[in-house]
Design a protein that fits this description.
Elements lengths: L1 H17 L9 E3 L5 E8 L2 E8 H5 L10 E3 H16 L2 H8 L5 H17 L4 H11 E6 L3 E6 L22 E6 L1 E5 L2 E5 L14 H19 L5 H8 L3 H9 L5 H8 L9 H6 L16
Parallel strand pairs: 1-5
Antiparallel strand pairs: 2-3, 3-4, 5-6, 6-7, 8-9
Helix pairs in contact: 3-5, 5-7, 7-9, 8-9
């Protein structure tokens, strides 16, 4: 009997763990800073999850009851989508971090972002861990979702308190337009097919990473942390010629780099082609690469 009770308890725990978690519990607020609380309803034996404004709970049945009642799966999917889109966009990350980190740390930051993005596609537990590590808050506005993402985990640092006085620790804000359509007492969420914030559809992650890697190697050489191209090549298990070619990318004109970060380069300007080019010394001549 005792063994059967233990088995039943274990089965109950497994069912509880298998149930859909409220991924954004404690993170979701409206534009006024009021939290949305996880809730659910059962209709015809099916469980429906929601995030509901506190006012709709505390003032239910009164004329003053106003707020949000959002289908949980829809808002969670939207947040995951926006977060994953940002984590897999080297252009956006480099732009948002700017000069806040040394170039030799940029590649490590991009690698961490890639690992976080991959974890979002794994188990619910891993997805929840990434959300808790990265997201400080999610704000629901009338026509947009704004996600505040902590910088610290992407930099491999301990999470800093929200009110840190260091500007470099301020969260990265990801904002995407959204339409809310009312259906009865609920609000349905309509997210654009593609985020238009930076027109990232034409961004080439391989090309951007090559530039970031070349800059990181150049800074190591300039600072004396690496003594030669050969040392870098042996350390990273690649050829000296490849290192030299990527280091040359540290001298691209700011205009060309800006165009590449925003996906405005010609389709045929790939990382392979750029690495093999004999780049002109004069930055003015780099403009020709944008017109090919």
């Amino acid at each position: 009997m005792r063994d059967q009770l233990a088995i039943n308890a274990a089965n109950h725990r497994r069912k509880a763990n298998a149930a859909e978690p409220s991924l954004l519990a404690g993170l979701l607020t409206d534009a006024q800073g009021e939290r949305l609380t996880p809730s659910h309803a059962v209709k015809k034996g099916r469980r429906y999850r929601y995030y509901v404004s506190t006012a709709l709970i505390t003032e239910a049945g009164t004329d003053q009851s106003q707020g949000w009642r959002l289908p949980a799966q829809e808002i969670e999917d939207a947040v995951i989508r926006v977060l994953a889109d940002a984590l897999t966009s080297p252009a956006l990350l480099i732009e948002r971090f700017g000069t806040a980190i040394p170039s030799d740390q940029t590649r490590k930051m991009l690698d961490r972002a890639t690992r976080f993005a991959a974890a979002l596609n794994r188990s619910p537990a891993e997805r929840a861990r990434v959300v808790r590590d990265l997201i400080e808050t999610v704000v629901i506005e009338e026509d947009a979702i704004m996600i505040r993402v902590r910088r610290s985990p992407l930099l491999g640092r301990a999470v800093m308190p929200p009110l840190s006085e260091n500007p470099g620790d301020s969260p990265i804000e990801l904002t995407t337009p959204v339409a809310f359509r009312r259906r009865g007492v609920e609000m349905r969420l309509v997210l654009p097919a593609v985020s238009s914030e930076n027109d990232r559809s034409k961004c080439d992650p391989t090309l951007i990473k090559a530039i970031a890697r070349g800059r990181a190697w150049f800074e190591e050489l300039a600072a004396g942390r690496a003594r030669s191209l050969r040392e870098l090549a042996e350390r990273d298990g690649i050829t000296r010629r490849y290192v030299r070619r990527l280091v040359d990318l540290a001298f691209l004109s700011p205009e060309l780099v800006e165009a590449i970060l925003h996906g405005r380069q010609p389709v045929d300007l790939t990382a392979t082609r750029l690495i093999e080019l004999d780049l002109p010394v004069d930055w003015a001549d780099h403009r020709s690469l944008l017109s090919n």
